[in-house]
């Protein structure tokens, strides 16, 4: 009786082992990791800046506040007239509050200097990029009127490109196409084919001057990272 009972138990155990082996092989087949390739796609283009910003400043001294006030009005009017000569108008500038320094309150100031110093400020902010560039480049002409325009760091024209959203979709498409081409080359070299996109990451857009001294031209750049599935 005992030998008859043992034989079916052995068969059952063997069946369980075989089933476990088959299931194991099956799971290995199902859980086979994806074959992928990760590539980067680049898109670049050169665009024209569409906004120019020029913090235009001019300084002078006088020995009375009355002269300071009068000269501020005269010099500001002369600068605005100068800007009009380049096709700019009141929509392109903002006259800001001047800075007045009272040297009579400073006991350490050299008495040979003026009692007061004033700095006039006009913020030029315009889409007329070329006109602003020409006006800034010719600003030494204001010296003939006794007006010295500041040329220090922070007082020169900066150029901006504000229409990134207009070019962003096409540039992303170009970067993705560039990544696809790289993936297809890799797949060809490895004897595979490119499948669907598994994941994709868009890099940051960068906007820089196209070249030194050519700040009104901007180079826009974006890099995307795409992971493609590979198939035989």
Outline the low-pLDDT stretches.
none
What separation lies between the terminal Cα atoms?
58 Å
> Quick one: biggest sheet?
4 strands, antiparallel
Q: How many strand units?
A: 8
Alpha plus pi helix count: 4
Helices and strands in order:
Elements: H1 2-30, E1 36-48, E2 51-62, H2 65-84, E3 93-102, E4 116-126, H3 129-137, E5 158-160, H4 164-190, E6 193-202, E7 206-209, E8 217-231
Antiparallel strand pairs: 1-8, 2-4, 2-5, 3-4, 6-8, 7-8
Descriptive report:
This protein has 232 residues and is α+β, with helices and mostly antiparallel strands. The protein has 4 helices and 8 strands; from the N terminus they run H-E-E-H-E-E-H-E-H-E-E-E. The strands form 2 sheets. Strands 1, 6, 7 and 8 form a 4-stranded antiparallel sheet that branches. A 4-stranded antiparallel sheet has the order 3-4-2-5, with helices on one face. Strand 7 (206-209) and strand 8 (217-231) form a beta hairpin. The longest helix is centred in the N-terminal third of the chain and has 29 residues, at 2-30. It is elongated and about 115 Å long. The two termini are 58 Å apart. The mean pLDDT is 87.
